[in-house]
Amino acid sequence: MDFDDTPQEAAFRAKARAWLEQHAKPRDPNAIAPNLLGERESADVIQKAKDWQATKFDAGWACLTWPKEYGGQGLGRLEAVVWGQEEGKFETPPNIYGIGHGMLGPTLMAHGSEEQKQKYIREMARGQVVWCQLFSEPDAGSDLAGLRTSAVKDGGDWVLNGQKIWSTGAHFCDWGMIVTRTDPNAAKHAGLTYFIVDMHAKGVEVRPIKQINGGSGFNEVFFTDVRVPDANRLGAVGDGWRVAITTLMNERVAIGAGGGAGRYRDLIKLAQETRRNGRPAIEDSAVRQKLADFYIQSKGLQFTSYRTLSALSRGATPGPEGAIGKAVGAPMGQEMAHFALELQGAMGAVADAAIAPQDAVWQEMYLGTPGLRIAGGTDEILKNIIAERVLRLPPEIRVDKDRPFREIPTGSVK
Amino acid sequence: MNLEFSEDQKFVQHTAREFLTKNAGLDVCRKVLETKDATHDPGLWKGVAEMGWLGAAVPEAHGGAGLGHLELVLIAEEIGRALAPIPFASSVALCTEAILQFGSEAQKQKWLPRLAAGEAIGTFALAEGPGDADVASLATRFASGRLTGTKLPVLDGEAAGLAVVVAQGERGPVLALLDLSAKGVTRTRVESFDPSHSLARLELRDAGAELLGGADGGAERVATLLDRAAVVIGFEQLGGATRALEITREFALGRYAFGRPIASFQALKHRLADLYAKIEIARSNGYYAAWALSSGNDELALAACSFRAAASDAFESAAQEMIQIHGGVGFTWEYDCHLFYRRARWLAASIGTASSWRDLLITRLVARQGQGGGDAHAE
Fold it and tell me: Looking at the whole model, is its pTM more than 0.90?
């Protein structure tokens, strides 16, 4: 057991550091970590993100764990962690590739034909085209397999009709991965098929959704007679659920602790700078107890992911334990933001970044984190995963399991 | 970076589990608990000593097994799983560790082989009544080789023969090594919350003792010792928490209500999932702390606080949930839930409560940020 770098990791870190110093500006370690929720909307930010990705790719720093033949570097997961730690010390554009690189790339590698891999993966790594995930539907929600968007075979094509929702970044994406229903007479999970869809194809309409945080990172996507060639099918007809599971397993690891881990430094600073009962809040025992809990949870999540990485780097496969990161991290992020606003007292109601403490980062986070608790599985779904797949407790009773999909009531009563 | 124990270390753990499964069923804990005047299980203590565990981190030259602290924490975890009624935390994590870290060569020669062999049982006497002990304002005095004062409660105080006593010296706090059979020592039994461990009140009147580690820097020495012990005891807590979850899970799978195993109800599934997450968060902090302990890394100061608080919370939560999920039978003397409930509280109270460790964590974090220091392992 050793948390320090191995000599190889240290050498890799130095190399990464040297390259980053030449190509990016170091971040002020005392500056408030930026809040990136809802920053992905402007064309300017998207372009900067694409430029940075191309620069990294051309220098050999993109998609480090992917095979070399598809544009990756064939490195281990621990090197990717080292890279992430170093890149985090520099000012870089927001990462718009979380879904593509974190979830869809691994899905393509697991289920794509050689032709599909050659066609898409390298291009995905360089990031000039961006990918989105088209899974959720208005009438399905957490019951993902209850989706209704249909795909009907017509000659060499499939014709798609229906609506997806909560598609992150769809408004600036070029390709999407979509799960559709190809057989409504089959049982719920059996009649699904997975496709790659061109977001610029005729009949695809993306409508950004205005969210409670004022941002519009999520979208509704409508499909009207959209033609998708059979060559864009990922996996067999009717095998879409199995392919989707690969995406979801990677999603839980990718979304992970995104809520607030790493923010405790800012929170401690805030507690030093705000007052309570005439003294710095940091001297208040109740404040100290909460701060400690956030620290312990943050570090616990970080080391849990390192434990997983250590096991994966030795050849294990990602398991359902990955659900802990999001199950604990997402609610924690919301709690931290809430606590920070409590510390701010009356200023907790001010959202103006020019006036509110720490650039109103906590105000933004408080508005953004409820979304994180839902995206990629609600708290309840994640706890079910831990209970059923880690602790092996009995699964939820499924009344719809063996019935033809068309007979199952879905959606909300209107 | 590698956050896994080695195969050799896992083998030590495996051996420990096998031995304890065979020799330390929960009935062994219960027997001590239910036997008036029993302080621990001497047979189990002897067996554990023969396995070399009491001196796992003691060098061979001093009669130990010459392994290391990574091996020691894994043994502690197994002792925690078994709820072994032996003074392991007191004698090994506290007393032996104190002599190992601060003892003179003569003190090491004299005591370490006897502690490693289990012939001497050691303890650590800090508390002086209610509240978390404040090292800077202890009433017990040490002057000219003599201790005077009252220590209450002393962990495993009836079983122990040797104590590391924290007292106010002439130039500040000191650690003193006290033979409990010395003249001027009066020991009274104090009813223990977990009678599988004893507690005592020590009245010291001019009791002869010797300094452990010099007349200066005692406060730092106590802090170091507590940090180190917190990691080992934290693993004992982690073991107890994990076992409580396992037993509760088994019970919930076998217990039927409303025509279904109660483990199939989402309300209970989610409680068990929450508990699992809490234990794993504690475990991850524990692995980091164990690395810091075994490698002598400065991160120990933060890692020990985090882990100790997380491990205390995890074990107490697990024991509370255990009773609740067992339902009415969980509240009976006959079921084992109360053994876990008692042990969890006993260990949580042993070397500072979880809330005091959380407070210390913030003090140390603020000091580090003030020095412009960051996190050695930032996200």
Answer: yes
